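lol ok so funny story. i was supposed to be doing the assay writeup but got distracted and ended up predicting the structure for this chain instead. priorities right. anyway since i did it might as well share w the group, maybe its usefull for someone
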Amino acid sequence: MLGGLSTDAFLRRHWQKRPLLVRQALPGFKGIATPAELAGLACTDGVNSRLVMERGGDYPWQARNGPFTAGDLRRLPLSHWTLLVTDIDRHLRAGADLVERFRFLPSWRVDDLMISYAVPGGSVGPHTDSYDVFLLQARGRRRWQINHRRYRDDDCIPGLDLRILAQFEPAEEWIVEPGDLLYLPPDMAHYGVALDECMTCSIGFRAPTQRELLTAWCDHAAGTLDPARRYADPDLRRQGNAGEIDGRARRRIRDLIRSVPRGDADIDDWFGRFITETGPWQPPPPPSRPMARARFLATFARTGHLYRDDRSRFAWIRRGAAATLYVDAAAYPLSRRATFAAPLLAGQREFSHAELAARLGNEEFVTLLLALRNRGHLSFRLRLCYR
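and the output, tada:
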């Protein structure tokens, strides 16, 4: 995937520093969905899709959100539009398989896999993204241009549906074909135009802003507080000037603010939950009937495999000799005896009975597997397509 570069060399030379173009990173790659399959997803409720029309819409660079109808797509012009469908890795198993190839980076950083389909001239304009992205060509040819200049919000054309740069002078240019991979660090201005019928897979890596993190943390912290507790001053004393906020009042206010849990363990636990939230897509539904322990073990032995649902997010945090597993914003603390389960479950998508047989005598581990199965995060059946 990295054109002969080791992971260490890629991280040292390119990650969040400079772009990398790898010719034939995946030789013979033909994509993970046909144009018709992508169109079908774009017409499905619960799938996040968007149509960008540089020309032929009600106004230049019109962006419309799905779901669309087959008639919407049939009436499109022959050029200068792009269809984008996000969260493909949660809708198609092949999408999750593709994201798995990027396991040389932390999986909790993965945002989603998006696929764009463009007709000749199709583009979303010159723009910047605030995250790392790998652009894997799946069909046709696309011309990519980049610029190393730092842009600001006021460098964009006002009044458009999209954040398109008003002035973009390319510093480098490539034409990519199926199997070619382009990595771009955050805030790198780029402009991709389809030269013919074209499909591109975009694997984005999330990078929350400081404001986003602090806002989410404050919302979380506020939810942990006693709503009945308020400012109180039963020891109030008469003061010389009624308009003064005196030292005693300021100390009471500081004590209220500082009583919010804010230790390292508190922040770590909040972040584990925050980063594994499932987002706008639907989390996996729990099975209609929960399994009892004995039946779960018997079914696992009979079927031979457990599978992780690709709609769920898994991550874990080491806590000394113990650990906590986070799945879709829920925390599963593990004792020292079951710590092995956190990297195992967060690091794989398929588990064979033969692989886990020696661990099934661990009661805590079996309890965890059963809980995850009964909440829909694990199943005995491989789901090939969710929609």
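The chain is about 25% helix and 25% strand. The chain has three domains: 7-205, 211-263, 293-379.
back to the writeup now i swear
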